[in-house]
Amino acid sequence: MSKASHGIGGLTYDPAKKAKPPELNVFLALVLITAAFELIGRLFMGDSFLFNTRENVDAIFNWPRLNIIILQVSIVGIIALGVTQVIISGGIDLSSGSIVGATAMITMSFAQTALVNGNPNPKAIFGEWAMDLPVLVPVVVGMCCGLLAGLVNGALIAYTRIPPFIATLGMMVFARGASRWWSNGNPVSFPTESYASIGKGMMPVVIFVSLAILFHLILSQTKYGKHCYAIGSNEQASRMSGIKVNNHKVLVYTIAGILAALAAIVLSSKNLTAQAGMGMMYELDAIAMAVIGGVSLQGGRGSILGTVLGALIFGVIISGFTFLKLDAYYQEMVKGAIIVGAVVLDQWRQQGRAKG
Amino acid sequence: MSDIILETRGLTKHYGGVHALSDANFTLRRGEHVAIMGDNGAGKSTFVRQITGVEQPTRGQIIFDGVEQAFDGPIKAREAGIETVFQNLALADDLDVPSNLFLGREKFRFKLGPFSILDKKAMLEATKAALEKTAVKIPSLSNTIRNMSGGQRQCVAIARTAAFKSKLVIMDEPTAALGVQETAQVENIIRTLKEAGEPLILISHNMRQVFDLVDRIVVFRRGRIVANLRKEDTDGQDVVAYITGAKTGSEYEAA
Ligand SMILES: Nc1ncnc2c1ncn2[C@@H]1O[C@H](COP(=O)(O)OP(=O)(O)O)[C@@H](O)[C@H]1O
Ligand SMILES: [Mg+2]
Question: What is the model's pTM?
Fold first, then answer.
C-alpha cells in the first residue's frame, strides 16, 4: 500500500482482522445443549446421556445413542442441504416433504420384487414388466420426479413472479395429493434386495455426509454457490451485475427437488415401503435445521456446515427428550418453539449488525 | 477512430405513462469529463440505465466507440467497456470485497458451467491491485461489506470499475452520502481518471465538485436535456437557472 497517504482518514488496512465464523456459535450451542442433557440426566435420571454406563460394554461413549441421533437426522438432513441453498438465495421451499411422499410412492413402484416368499407381490403396482428391474431404474425415475417438481417450483418463481412461499405451498398440496392418488392411498411395498440396500444400516448417514461435503464445496467454491449468496443478499444488485437471476433460481429449486427425491429413495429403501403420508412435515424440520444452523431467512447468510450442525442440534434435542422419557407431544411443542426461537435470534443478529 | 466515445440519438424511455427520458441527444468525447445535473426525478439515473444495458430504451440509438449498440444486459455494456458506479451501488452486503468486485464476472480455475470453480486467489490479488490503483483502504478484504461505512462501500463500488479495463466510466451520485474526507477521496480518484485520459460521466448535485472536476455540464429537466454548457461559459447561478427551469438552452427551446 504505497499510496497510504491518500487513504480515508482514520482507517487502517488490517488483513488479519477477520470476523469469527458464525458456525462457531452454532457449535457452542450444540455443546451446551448436549451438556445440559448430560447434567439433567445425571441429576434426575441417574444415567448418562452421552457416555456409556453399561458395565458389560467396553466403550467410553454411548455409541448406540449417538448412532441413532445421527441416523434419524440424516434423511431430513439431505432435504435440509437443498433447503439451505434455497434459503441462502432468498427463497423458501415448503414442498420438500410432499415431494418425498410422491417420489417415494412412484419410485417404489419401479423397485418392486416379483415374488415375496414364493408368492406374487401382493402390493404390485404395475405388471410383470416392472418387477425386479435393475436398481438404477427406480433411482433414476425418483430423481426425475424430484427434478420435475423442483423445475416447476423454480419456473413458477422465476418467470411468473409468484412468491416462493405460495409457489411451493401449491406444490406441497399438489404433490401430497399425487402421492395419495398414485395407488389410491395404498402403501407400495416389497422392494428388490438391491433397492433395499440403499438405505440399509448406516447407509443414510454415509449418503448424507457425502452429499453434505459435496454441497459444502459447491456453495463455497463455485460460481453457483457465490451467486446463491449474491442473489439472496441483493437480488437487484445481482441482476445489475449481470447474473442471470431467473436461470439461477430455476436451478436452485431443481436441485432442492432432486435432493428431496434422494431423501425419498433412502427413506423408502430403509423402511422397505412407501406410504402416501411419507415425509409429512419434513419441510419444516429441514427449514428448522437450516435456521438453527444460522441460515438467515432473509437470505444471503448461512452455510452447509451450519446446517449440518443445526441438524445435529435437532437430533440431540429429539434424542434428549426420548432419553428424559418425555412424551412425543412435548417434542413437537419444543420443536415449534425452537424454530421460532432460531428466527428471533436471527432477527436480533440482524439488528445488531445494523447498529454496528 | 472517431473522437467521440459515446453518442445517443433520440434516446427515450417510458415507464408505462411516465416519460422518464425523452429524446436525449448526448455526446461525449474521448478523455472528456462531463457532469449531468438536474433535480431529483429529472431522468438522470434513467439515462444511465439505458446506456449501461440495465434497461432497454423505448426508442433511440446508442453509439459507443463507433458502433451502434443495443446492450441486452449490463454484462454486455461492461464487456464493451462501460464501467458504472450505480446510484444504489449494486453491491451485495453479505459478500466480501473481492466477491463484490467480481460479481457476475468471476475468475475461474476451471470452467464447468454453473459449477465452475472460482479462482479466489486471483480475484484477491486483482482486488488488492485495484484498491492500490484507486488508493482506497478497506479494513479487511475477507469480511463482508455489511458493516462498512458509506465511504468504504462507495470505494468498493469505484474500485470495481478500476479492476477492469474500461473505455468509459459512469458514476451516479457517487458522493451523495459521503462525509467531507470521503468525498475528497472519491474526487481524487476522479482526478486520476482525468490524468489517465479516461472519459467520465459524473452525476452530481454538488456544484463545487462539478466545477472542480469536469469540462462540461449537461442539465436534465423532466426527462429532457435542457442545457449543454462548457464550464468556462457558465457559473453556478446560471446552472441553477437551467435546473429549476428559469432558463432553457437556446438550441433546446423548440422541445
Ligand atoms: N422503474 C421505474 N418505473 C416507473 N417510473 C420510474 C422508474 N424508474 C424511474 N421512474 C421515474 O422516472 C423519473 C426519473 O427518475 P430518475 O431517472 O431516477 O431520476 P433522477 O436520477 O434524475 O433523480 C421519475 O419520475 C421516476 O419516478
Ligand atoms: Mg438518480
Answer: 0.90
